[in-house]
Hints:
Elements: H1 8-17, H2 19-39, E1 44-51, H3 58-68, H4 71-81, H5 88-92, E2 95-100, E3 104-111, H6 114-139, H7 142-168, H8 175-200, H9 203-206, E4 211-212, H10 227-252, H11 259-266, E5 270-277, H12 290-298, H13 315-332, E6 338-344, H14 348-363, E7 376-381, E8 394-402, H15 408-420, E9 425-434
Parallel strand pairs: 5-9, 6-7, 6-8, 8-9
Antiparallel strand pairs: 1-3, 1-4, 2-3
Coiled coil: 148-201
Keywords: Cell membrane, Coiled coil, Membrane, Transmembrane, Transmembrane helix
Organism: Streptomyces smyrnaeus
Amino acid sequence: MSDDTIRLVTIGRILRxxxxxxxxxxxxxxxxxxxxxxxxxxxxxxSASVLLPGQWEERELLTQxxxxxxxxxxxxAAATLRWKGVGGGELRDRVSARTADGNIxxxxxxxxxxxxxxxxxxxxxxxxxxxxxxxxDESADPDAAAGAEALRQKVAQTNRRITDLADAADPGRxxxxxxxxxxxxxxxxALQEAMKKLDDAAPATNKAGMVVMGPAARPTGxxxxxxxxLVVAGALLFFLLAVLGHLAAARVSRRLCTxxxxxxxxxxxxxxxxxxxxxxxxxxxxxxxxxxxxxxLLGVDTRWHLPTPRMSGDEADRRIRYRRVCARLRxxxxxxxxxxxxxxxxxxxxxxxxxxxxAEAESDPSCHSSSTEHPLSLVGVPVSRPLVPxxxxxxxxxxxxxxxxxTAGELAGIAEACADAGHxxxxxxxxxxxxxxxxxxxxxGRPPQHATPSSAVGGAVRGGSV
Length: 466
């Protein structure tokens, strides 16, 4: 898993095998989002539009938007609102302005109620228009304004004089009269165009007169993030963090998943792989207590990263694998003797497989001799502090475990414990789970003669028929 690319099948496996845990974490995230919404009361936002007549460049519009949210404007709005405990400094964080198409500046105000949000945006827009008009009046040059007005009067007098001259000309009777009237009209048109250019070039007269385009509409919904959004965001965040946590844990995991790696960590040879049906036993070692019940309820007591168990044959097919392991044991140890079957504590799959292996060895007459009544003896070993019983009549130790459960260091500790007790690890058997088909009658195989005894999957068991 640590070297594989994360695929959709991996995500699906997490969702299928950890759906209870993911659901609980999503509910916790939703509660956290709800608590956050309680700590931060709802906000409402209203917007008022201000029209700036004339021709404006983009940088000039941005400057006006900055003026709309300046302290000079917001402080005046706060003074007119007279909200208790709310000053201009706090309102500056609630007011924003942006430019829109058509020389329009939208001023938005945020408050705890829809009515206050509407009042805030309206007052700021009014104060902005007043402040901008005052700036325009103060920046205007009185002499230039007087000169422009005098020029307009002169142009008006000239237009009247042109009209008098056109009337005095001999209209339509002679060629000279028609030419005179044409020249006078051209002069009138040129004067009008010159005055128009003069008016367009005067910013004080062209850019004054900003207009508030009606009162702000009262908001009908909360400003984001709303309570619903916070609840959904909290649930989604916790859900994604849980999935990412599973992926990260699987990627950094050092548990061995292949048979060659497991055999190398134990310093022995692989005798074969056996299968047990994929079922949950009624009792599990160490499964008592409230925490164990919670783990079972959430489904975190089973490994999620292992592939889905494949479909296998019936019981007779699975027993063939156990008999082959027994045959390899006889080849490995030609001399008759008793073997100690070592199973790590907490490996339920390995315990069930070891119990069936012990039962199969007892039912195989070729495994018995006059000096050995019970060929295999099962013992459970704690992985944290492995301790194996000292050698008595055993000829060695056989380690049975499942793939993807233990690290190389843990398996090396079991091998060292066997060596300290005088047992040589003669082989390794890897157990896996399969989905069993209904049992059918076979002529080539034998029907099961021994169910797995309860003592065979118990704690530390030595000798007997386990």
